[in-house]
Structure prediction request, 500 residues.
Amino acid sequence: MSWYRPRSWSLSVKIPFAHTVMIVAVALTIGIVVVAQARVQFREALEEKVLLMARDVAATAPEAILRNDYWALYNTLRQKASHLPVHIGEPRLLSGMVLDVDGRVLAHLDPVNHPLGLTLAPAEAAERRLLDDALKVLTPSVVMGGGSDGDFIESHVPVTFDQKRLGVVRMRASMNELNERIWRAGFTVLFLTLGLAAAGSLLGAVISSRMVHRLKALAEGMATVGRGEASQIRPLTAASRDEIGQVVARFNEMAAELAEKKRLEEKLAMSEKLASLGQVAAGVAHEVNNPLGGMLNCINTLKTHPDDPALVQRYLPLLEKGLNRIGATVQGLLVELHEEIEAKPCDLACLSDLRELVAAEIGDRKIVLNWDNHVPDEVCLGCSCPNLQQVVLNLTNNSIQAMPEGGALAFRSSRENDSLVMEVEDSGVGIPPEHQRHLFDPFFTSRPNGTGLGLWVTYQLVQKMRGTIQVESKPGQGSLFRVQLPIDGDAAGASTHDTV
Prediction:
């Protein structure tokens, strides 16, 4: 798994990570908002307290200034300053003073360093600007600044009497404690965030492990279904009623239905096999019992009259004919079970050899053979030559037997794209429509002496050669059998055309 590619992460990683990110984002957002609001509230409270102290001093200062009672002014300043307690974590009062309009000290909380009557002369430029602003102030105000003692808040309240400026009161409080409280609140939020993130990750890991476990079980079950092993699926346990639980329940229903379907299919396939076996067994019994009964009668007659040459001469051909009929039946059945040891691809030269065999089978019958082969001998098929010849001979023999009074037999072969097409057409009696759907069934025949295995064997051979066979026929108008087989090689050469 590539850690730099989130799409490749497992759900067991994605879900805890998403939980953690969400919890951290929410906790940090809330923490930042809370800390920011707390800082604003703390600062406003401190500004209000410092401004209130300066107002109280300015309210009583005019009388003391007019009477030059600077001791009373100092006591008032110190008394008001005591309202700001000095505790750990609480704001400290850095300085407090009363100045006249020229900047001379009328009262100071630090009288040793700022004696009465001396002009206040700050060394730092920032302090001098702040002093100039304080001497010019007309209404109470609060300013913020920073110096060697850190950040501070300072209030400026003018001292007036009868609309005449007498001086200004300055009260300064440190913001260091306020900043420390803000930092402590920030660290508290950070620790809470980390704690919530850890708890969220643990919770997400537990949830995701359960979820991923169920999803993996579903995936394995689907893979089992895809392999066609639905009967091997064990029902999954739906631990909850959420969406995954509903999917698990539906999956269990689907698996049960597929298992039942597979069981029914296997049962149906077995039934079809048994039915086919029964049909073949019945056909074999019928085809063997017919000649066998006649043969047994012949043997019993010969046993009764063993010295009668006429009976021996009469019944021996019948016995031979019956044995040949039984042998043909067994040979036809062996085609379906026989596996060729060496099935090498053949060329189509074997088709040219069939012409003489078909002509010999026609013999003295009044049948005209039209042999029309348009496929070069070099064309290669993925089947053995005997199988191909057997298909053609079975079809031509079937057509010959369908013309007892004579007629015309045509064989045509051609190449269509990557297929060999062979057609056997006769002008015989034709095939009724009700017989055509059973034409390739084993032991089905409409002729008294037929075995019903010729066309069935032909159909099996065509199927083994990955081909198709079709028939078109009307009673009294002959029949056309069309066989299409795949070609494995390229064609070259000329065609042959013969008429007998």
